[in-house]
Specification:
single chain, about 120 residues, mainly alpha, 2 strands
Length: about 120
């Protein structure tokens, strides 16, 4: 799909979602909810990345950090998808917020990571 078509669809769908939620809870609450998701998106993602990496790294005597993990590919995939979810949470809009939450939650992130790895293996 061309980039301009995707951008147009994104703007239209986010606009419709905003209008729908504003009709449901009011414009002021909608703007406040939008601001809250933008402000806390990267915070939530950074906390999840720290949780993923907890216990998988050790600091050496010279101050460098070494990753000790039996499955570094899975960990890298989790961190990458979590950071992508944080970026989506930081963007203004409710659809991107929903997609960002799906990338941050461990069960849906694992499912997406598996689907992406299968697609990658098939393409290689």
């Amino acid at each position: 799909m061309p980039f301009m078509l995707v951008l147009f669809l994104y703007i239209v769908l986010e606009g419709l979602a905003f209008v729908g939620i504003a009709n449901l809870i009011g414009l002021g609450w909608t703007l406040l909810l939008l601001l809250a998701t933008m402000l806390f998106g990267m915070t939530i993602a950074s906390l999840e990345v720290r949780r993923i990496m907890h216990g998988k790294t050790t600091r050496t005597e010279d101050g460098s950090v070494i990753m000790e993990d039996a499955t570094p590919g899975r960990t890298a995939g989790n961190v990458g998808l979590t950071l992508a979810g944080g970026v989506l949470l930081s963007l203004p809009g409710f659809l991107t917020t929903f997609l960002g939450i799906l990338l941050i939650l461990p069960p849906t992130r694992a499912l997406l990571r598996t689907l992406l790895s299968v697609k990658l293996f098939k393409s290689v």
